[in-house]
Amino acid sequence: MRTADFDYHLPPDLIASEPLPERSASRMMVVHRDTGQIEHRQVSDFPAYLRPSDLVVLNDTRVVPARFFPNEGGREVLQLEMLSALRWRCMIKPGKKFRVNDQFHIGAATGTVIEVLQNGERMIEFDQPVDIATHGHLALPHYMGRDDQPSDSDRYQTVFANAAGSIAAPTAGLHFTPELLGQFHHAFVTLHVGVGTFQPVKAEHITDHIMHSERYEVPQVTADAIAAAGRVIAVGTTATRTLESVAQSHGGQIVAASGSTNIFIYPGYQFQVVNALLTNFHLPKSTLIMLVCALAGRDLILKAYAEAIAQRYRFYSYGDCMLIV
């Protein structure tokens, strides 16, 4: 399969740069795999598609302020991993200002580049902890075309966010309110979303793509709930990747586990746990649209995307969603 097989054209004005006033007011396209039928509904209709024995699994990761602008100006630091309060692994720009032994300042903290990794990332050592609450910004996806605002600290976070560690939000979960969650059985996994999630695949053939790794955790209470469930409905590709990764490692079973995964799900993959999926609309040629095509078939998904564009659905992180049943 070629990466170009997962391309489509999206009019720029359909990219949602702001959230709707109400979380559950988003539109929800329902795609039926068995018949190919496509319905146009609202997120508030989601419970109507569930059976009494279904379990909805959501990702409870919390987005952290990972974007920093040094005092010197003209520089940007994206924290990929906080190895300790004083040592970070980062993406930076411009690279010419972040060579080994170069220094910069974020507030009162002085950072020193101690290593340049082969992939261009930097290891940074600080002389004191950075005041993240004061100087940190949410790293909104580039396609929003704007910097973060105070309102994003609430809306670019799920109402059930718990375990801090993501650079980006598990966006399918943004649609849920406490009232909506109260209408069905649900459980949580944690997968900390990294910057690689939203990057397009650059390899010509998808099997040549090197997948990023992300940290996950499945608690015992969730493993028990899945074992007792009829169907498992994953909310988001991150919850899907977590469940399928654990199943791959444990003979098709879900057990309490934690670790990191670089699972790459594309057409031909046989799902072991996830029976249905609620997900947002994804970037062309991304690993996320490939995962969705693995579940529902490339032809049906591209047909559904064309329908979404014709019906002027809102796309990407703050956009509308699709339920695949």
Describe this structure in words.
With 325 residues, the protein is an alpha/beta fold. Helix 6 packs across helix 7. The protein starts with 26 loop residues before the first strand and ends with a strand. The protein has seven helices and 17 strands. The protein has two domains: 246 residues, 3-Layer(aba) Sandwich (QueA-like), CATH 3.40.1780.10; 69 residues, Thrombin, subunit H. 37% of the residues are buried. The mean pLDDT is 96. Strands 2-1-17-16-14-3-12-13-15 form a nine-stranded mixed sheet. A six-stranded antiparallel sheet has the order 5-6-7-10-9-8, with no helix packed on it. Strands 4-11 form a two-stranded parallel ribbon.
Portion of residues within helices: 10-25%
What is the spatial order of strands in the main beta sheet?
2-1-17-16-14-3-12-13-15
The helix/strand class is alpha/beta
In total, how many domains does the architecture comprise?
2
Portion in strands: 25-35%
Order of helices and strands: EEEEEEEEEEHHEHEEHEHEEHHE
Q: What gyration radius follows from the Cα positions, in whole Å?
A: 20 Å
Superfamily (CATH H level) name of the largest domain: QueA-like
Q: Figure out the total of helices.
A: 7
Q: Let me know the average pLDDT.
A: 96
Tell the overall outline.
globular
- CATH class label of the largest domain: Alpha Beta
What's the CATH architecture name of the largest domain?
Answer: 3-Layer(aba) Sandwich
Output the CATH topology of the largest domain: QueA-like
Major beta sheet summary: 9 strands, mixed
Low-confidence residue ranges: none
Number of DSSP strand runs: 17
